[in-house]
Automatic annotation (TrEMBL):
PANTHER family: RIBOSOMAL RNA LARGE SUBUNIT METHYLTRANSFERASE K/L, RIBOSOMAL RNA LARGE SUBUNIT METHYLTRANSFERASE K_L. This is THUMP domain-containing protein. Pfam families: RlmL_1st, THUMP, UPF0020. Keywords: Methyltransferase, RNA-binding, Transferase. Residues 43-154 form the THUMP domain. Gene3D superfamilies: 3.30.2130.30, Vaccinia Virus protein VP39. It comes from Phormidium yuhuli AB48. InterPro entries: RlmKL-like_Mtase, RlmKL-like_Mtase_CS, RlmL_1st, SAM-dependent_MTases_sf, THUMP_dom.
């Protein structure tokens, strides 16, 4: 059994822990912005392929005291990097966290890179190049107080990049957060789902992927672990084949999205086609004022604009009031959720939330508000 660590957005640790347990993870422990767990290599591949709320899956190498740049360099250089990386392979180093001596992430990442390439020069007379976008090996350094942990990143690029979404609207919701919102809203594939402000379609797409039991990682070109010396291609093909066989051709209930902008709805349709769920989602170009409930019960989730400047916020007050009126008048029997980064605007909905769930999006303090509509 290997020890792994999945990174998540702050506030989503409990949801991620539940997801990992369902995927077969052992010894699951919630931490800040992540979840530690144990499993075999098959689980590592499965978690990368199926993880809906996870950013990255790290394989810890070592943890050590770290109170200076010199100490960091020496500890990293003492590791057997030839087991993970040849001079022909490219690398990248990500750094999170800081302490008094190492308070700049770029500088700390540079110490790790220098330690590795200096070791390579001494051993082989040549060194790996840095490739920040598409490296053969991505390394993660995390500094917390006077300790550092060093890990290999098995995911490569962040798992929120599903691979199906070429078309992105303005200020899109991360797919990982959309999946978490569905979980928090207790979405079930048997329940009709609607996003009346769907933009480029992130929420309906995530709902359709869940309803059709499609592994979100199936659309990605590659994962970081595929470049590792111990990569098992036969096992990986087996894990992918299992995921392909688990797909359902239809969704049991209505999934819909609407938006007033025809251009952005074209993007949503394009994304749905790329994800193989265009037949499962009904997109409509319509004003929120014309929206009607497609059934007598269901789940509505929307992510209305927050307004960054004072003038925008004033203009949006009426829009949030309109949302509340539409919920009350046309969606009796439904449960509605509003995800917003502006608590003052949220009050304009004019309904008492049954739940207020604190979340973070792009560093913003946000809330998911639940409204039971009788």
């Amino acid at each position: 059994m290997e020890r792994y660590f999945a990174t998540v957005a702050p506030g989503l640790e409990a949801i991620a822990a539940e997801e990992l347990t369902e995927l077969g993870a052992q010894s699951v422990q919630r931490k800040f912005s992540g979840v530690a767990f144990e499993g075999d290599r098959r689980l590592l591949y499965r978690v990368n392929l199926w993880g809906r709320t996870l950013f990255r899956v790290l394989v810890p190498l070592t943890e050590f005291p770290c109170t200076s740049a010199k100490q960091l360099y020496q500890e990293v250089r003492s590791l057997p990097w030839e087991a993970y990386l040849s001079p022909e392979d490219s690398l990248a180093v990500d750094c999170t966290g800081k302490n008094r001596a190492l308070n700049h992430s770029h500088f700390s990442a540079l110490q790790v890179k220098n330690a590795i390439v200096d070791q390579q020069r001494q051993q082989f007379g040549c060194r790996s190049n840095v490739d920040l976008d598409n490296p053969d090996l991505r390394i993660n350094l995390h500094i917390h107080r006077d300790r550092a942990s060093l890990s290999l990143d098995s995911s490569g690029s962040s798992l929120h990049r599903r691979g199906y979404r070429a078309a992105v609207g303005t200020a899109p919701l991360k797919e990982t957060l959309a999946a978490a919102l569905l979980k928090l809203a207790r979405y079930s594939p048997e329940l009709p789902f609607l996003d009346p402000l769907c933009g480029s379609g992130t929420l309906p797409l995530e709902a359709a992927l869940q309803a059709a039991n499609i592994a979100p990682g199936l659309f990605r070109d590659r994962f970081g672990f595929e470049n590792w010396p111990d990569f098992d291609p036969a096992l990986w093909q087996e894990v992918k084949a299992e995921a392909q066989a688990a797909r359902r051709g239809t969704c049991p209930a209505y999934i819909g999205g609407s938006d007033i902008d025809p251009g952005i709805l074209d993007q949503a349709q394009h994304n749905a086609t790329a994800a193989g769920v265009s037949q499962q989602i009904e997109f409509h170009c319509q004003d929120i004022r014309d929206i009607e409930a497609p059934s007598d019960r269901g789940l509505l989730i929307c992510n209305p604009p927050y307004g960054e400047r004072l003038g925008e916020v004033q203009e949006l007050r009426g829009f949030y009031r309109l949302l509340g009126d539409i919920f009350k008048q046309r969606f009796k029997g439904w449960t509605a959720y509003v995800f917003t980064g502006n608590r003052e605007l949220a009050k304009e909905v004019g309904l008492r939330p049954a739940r207020r769930i604190p979340l973070s999006s792009g560093g913003l303090d946000c809330r998911l508000l639940e409204f039971e509509l009788y």
